[in-house]
Amino acid sequence: MGWDIKVDAAKCTGDGACKDACPVDVYEIKGGKAVPVNADECLGCESCVEACEADAITVTEE
Ligand code: SF4
Description:
The protein is of the alpha+beta class. 16% of the residues lie in helices and 29% in strands.
């Protein structure tokens, strides 16, 4: 069981709110967009989803 993280690049502004909110450093900002480089570490807490003002992130159990 894990968590599937999707970032809508068309909505992402790259402000890093998700990166700042994530307790386990899942995100890096690359090319101005959030990339979940450590998705395996995700806890499913949805702090990134709540932090994203652009509503660009979804986290679903897989
Ligand atoms: S759901 Fe929580 S642990 Fe997973 S990427 Fe978002 S902030 Fe990080």
